Structure formats: structure tokens, C-alpha cells
Amino acid sequence: MTFQQINYALTIADVGSMNKAAEKLFISQPTLSSSIKELENELEITIFIRNSKGVSLTPEGSDFLSNARQVYQQYQLLKDRYVSKEDLTKTFSVSTQHYSFATKAFVETVKHYDTAKYQLAIRETKTMHVIEDVGNSRSEIGILYLSSFNRKYLSKLFDSYDVVFHHLTECNAYVYIYKDHPLAKKESISFFELLDYPCLSFEQGSVDSMYLAEEILGDSEYRRTIKTNDRATMLNLMVGLNAYTLCSGIICEELNGSDYLAIPYQADESNPNSIMEIGYLTKRHSILSDIGMEYINQLRKYLANEKNKLSDQ
Questions:
Q1: 32, 61, 68, 191: which could join 57 in a potential S-S bond, CB 3.0 to 4.6 Å?
Q2: pTM as predicted
């Protein structure tokens, strides 16, 4: 098995076609097919199933390429740093739950790098996709939270995707509402005070498990709920419907605007508070790139500043 064969296989998986992959790699289609066949024979697995529409991955092929992509990316990092003398385009991607602070840290990170030399991406997405993206090496870093409610469930997913969770900060639950909401002037808000208002949550797709919810206190029984799939729509629903969501309290006003408030959640015996442990995922045994380390530094800096603001309130 060679790095060239791994690159060939990854390219085929990315474009979904032998012919398109051959064009992208500047080799003939028979040469590419022969190389992949040799790789499959050596590994004693079938990586691709050929059909009239192109190719699709077998379960064994998907598992192999998930690991191979990680190895190849580390090889590219070493090659770029120690061997290549050319200014090659590098990649950096982050997948995150819908957090404005994750986007803010991304913005501050990108300011330190020449965007002409990088292919950059940040994806606000479903919880399961955050884990899958890091596990499949589509993203170098994933941002999400753990709590006493979801920790056991998500930890099993982390193990199955061979990813590791790293601590960033901890915070209590806050109620996030529009400034003109009837409860906006309160110093804290209880669960019972929220019953007459719609609770907003991010849609989690077909695997819509309550353990994948992005909102803290996901095990509580909410009388009125509305699901959405993006942050801008959620903010609009807060304005139009006096709706609310539950969050970490760490909100970037620069990106979300100053018309929204994070008010402490007031716990009671029946509806206790819960600690959100916000952190980031990486592929197990992976090495963060320089830009990846800068992103984590920007995250830590921003979260520390915002936590200090919350404690001063």
C-alpha cells in the first residue's frame, strides 16, 4: 500500500466516479482502476462497488478510508512542513453546533492567515454530523458540549468514531430571549415561567435523539416546541413569537446583534440546572495543524473573556 494509492482512493470517494477521479489526478482510467484493484487485493477487501452511476463505498471501504484519510492528511502536513518548497494550498475545517462564539473564533483565526493559501470551511451543523465530520477527517476540529444527561450517550459515539473530547469551559444554563420579551426584565427565569412560550431547538435530522439536542436541559418536558435548522431563523422566531432557547450564556453580540439577552435559568427541585461542558473534538492520535492550534487558542481566549463578563453581572 502506498500513499499514492491512498490518494487515488480518497479522490474517487470524494468525486464519486472513476472517470472524474482519473481526470482530476491526470492519469488514465485504466491505470487508476488497476491501482485500486491492486490495493483491494492487498487489503483483501472491496473498497468500491462499480455501477452505471459511478462508484459507491462498501462498509469495509468506508472504514478503511476513514482511517486512511487521517493518515494521508498527517502525511501531507509533514510533507508540506519539511519537504515541499512550494506554496501549496492547505485546508482547515471546523464543524460545530450552532455557536456564535465558534464562528467568532474562526473569524479571528482567519485574520492571522493568508486566505489565498488555504481552503477554509466552518460548518454549523447537527450534533451527529459534528462527530461524523471529525471521525471521517472532513473537519480537523468539532465543537459541542457534554452534560450529565448526554455524556454517556455521546461518549459511546466518540469511541465508535475514534474521536477525543477536549475540555474548554463549563457554564450553567441561560435562557436566551429577545430584548422585548415579557420576561426580559427578570434577573432569572424559572421553568414554570417559560411554559407559556415556545421553546426553540435545532433539528437533529433522522437521528433526532434527545441526547443529541444542542440545548441544555434537553430532558425537560416542554409544552410548546418549535424546531429550526439555522441560527438566523431561531433569532427571527424569538422576535416574532416571544420564543426562547436554552444556551450557555456565551453569545457573540458582534455576530448575533445586541437585541438579545441571556438571562440565568432559575432551577428548582423538579427542574434542576445542569452544567454544560463545552469542548472540542479531534481525531484520536491526530496532531493539530498550526491553524488548528491558533483556532483553539482563539476559542480559549474568547470563552475566558465572556465567562468573566458573565461572572461580573
A1: 61
A2: 0.71
